[in-house]
Amino acid sequence: MARPLQTILDAVLDGVVVVDDTGRVELLNAEACRILETSVAHAETEQVEALAGPDHPVASVTRKVLESARSAIADEVPIRRRFSEDLIADLAVAPLPESDGGGAVIVLRDRTIQNSLRDASSQREKLVSYGHIAAGIAHEVKNPLSGIRGAAELLEGRADDDRARRTAGLIVREVDRITALVDELMVFAKGEVLDPQLLNLHQVLDGVIELAAVDRLAEKVRIDRVYDPSIPELLADGNRLTQIFLNLTRNALQALSSEGDGGLLTVRTRVSLDHRIPATDGQMLPAVIVEFQDDGPGISPENLERLATPFFTTKSDGTGLGLAVARHWVSQHHGTLDVKSVLGEGTTVRVSLPLKRPTPGSGGTPGNTRSESEKS
Ligand SMILES: Nc1ncnc2c1ncn2[C@@H]1O[C@H](COP(=O)(O)OP(=O)(O)OP(=O)(O)O)[C@@H](O)[C@H]1O
Ligand SMILES: [Mg+2]
User: Fold this and answer.
1) Ligand nearest to the Cα of 324, by number
2) Which end of the chain is more exposed for a tag (fewer CB within 10 A), N or C?
3) Taking each helix axis from N to C terminus, what angle separates 322-332 and 111-158, rounded to the nearest 10 degrees?
4) From the CA of 306, which ligand is nearest?
């Protein structure tokens, strides 16, 4: 039985468009419709120029191929879109044989997914190397610290003048501070396993915002929530998500109050099919995007490059671990964290998490899901 051509084309992962020798669209598949934000009914019989604009490489490269009857490719062409985020796609156009009436077949491959995979794996590699450094530091620093603390405590108890006692107490407190810092750094080294549960993302965010709102920092800040109500419950570790979102909210509040006059923090959620993320079984899952957008002072391009490094801070009382720890837990969820910022305009931190749902039959029990994440 011959299968309908459209069914086959729709199963192809790349966007495919077929045009006749005059550049009129004859066929297009589902992925091409998604990339170009059109429908079969709308695009068929249109000229190729109608797909992405008359000056766009999709049209100009196709015209060249129709004239020369030689195939052509263009890498990383930007596709501007009206309803969803812009994309980067690779374009390949091949002529169809003259004997069959000519024309051309256009193939569009969405690079966004590949690029986000590359970013995620380089983020993961970095975090692994921080883990090695952290383990080294912990080993070399923590042992002597406990000796110093013990000695200082002894001195504190034996000192007979007040000043010596206070000084020894100061040593104990500072040692505790360094120990806490080293412990915090150890999150990169321990390889702790997540405890995913089926949870409501917005409840987690509400909890974080409530917690952050009682902070003095939040006094002059307005926090707007723009939630996508269609986001279903997803499998994730609620405590870790809280930690991620709290670190990002704190950064935004600190940035907004650094100039004294407050500002606006928008917490936005949505589902994105353009940022599909591979699950442990290789299946591509849609991504849930959580954005923290502030209209604070922004980050200079030099500092933006250094954000991925643990301990980078511009705050007198900062440890510079907030973002690195957030990134670590996002990465453990197989997600990504990106920071976009314009100096003088504000900062947007975007967390993409795979929309992981219980597999049918597993019932979403924590036991099942835990064993799944341990495999990864
Ligand atoms: N929303 C933001 N607006 C402006 N700058 C930011 C924002 N978020 C982070 N930064 C910059 O990134 C740096 C690193 O942030 P990170 O959270 O890692 O550490 P920190 O906030 O300095 O210290 P800690 O989180 O440990 O208290 C900050 O010092 C700040 O310069
Ligand atoms: Mg911080």
Assistant:
1) 1
2) N
3) 130
4) 1
Return the best residue to mutate from 245, 323, 342, 349 for the ligand 1 pocket (most ligand atoms within 8 A of CB): 323
Task: Give the pLDDT band (50/70/90) at residue 280.
Answer: low
Please report where in the chains the tokens 């969803």 appear, as a residue. Answer: 84
Please report, for residues 255, 261, 339, the alpha-carbon distance to residue 258 in angstroms, rounded to integers and kept in the order given.
Answer: 5, 8, 19
Rounded Cα distance between 299 and 52, Å, is 34
Residues 36-88 pLDDT 10s: 999 988 888 899 999 988 889 999 999 999 999 999 999 999 999 888 888 89
Mark whether 205 and 345 lie in a shared domain: yes
Among residues 88, 114, 140, the one where a domain terminates is 114
Which amino acid belongs to residue 189? A
224 and 347, same domain (yes or no): yes
CB of 320 sitting under 6 A from ligand 1: yes
Instruction: Provide the CB-side half-sphere exposure for 161 (13 A, CA).
Output: 3
Q: Residue 357: inside a domain, yes or no?
A: yes
Among the three residues 114, 138, 155, which one is the final residue of a domain in this structure?
114
How far CA 341 is from CA of 46, 54, 299, in Å, comes to 40, 32, 6
Atom of ligand 1 nearest to the CA of 324: 18
Ligand 1 binding pocket mutation candidate from 294, 315, 316 (most atoms within 8 A of CB): 315
My answer on whether 106 and 242 are in the same domain is no
> Is residue 154 included in any domain, yes or no?
no
From the CA of 310, the nearest ligand is 1
Tell me, using a 6 A CB cutoff, whether residue 291 lines ligand 1: no
312 lines ligand 1 (CB under 6 A): yes
Query: Could you give the count of Cα atoms lying within 13 Å of 85 in the half-sphere of its Cβ?
Result: 14
What are the DSSP calls for 244-300, one per residue? HHHHHHHHHHHHHHTTSS-EEEEEEEEEEEEEEEE-TTS-EEEEEEEEEEE-SS---
Same domain, 260 and 362: yes
> Is any atom of ligand 1 closer than 6 Å to the C-beta of 252?
yes
> pLDDT tens-digit profile of 315-331?
988 888 899 889 989 98
Q: Are residues 100 and 234 in the same domain?
A: no
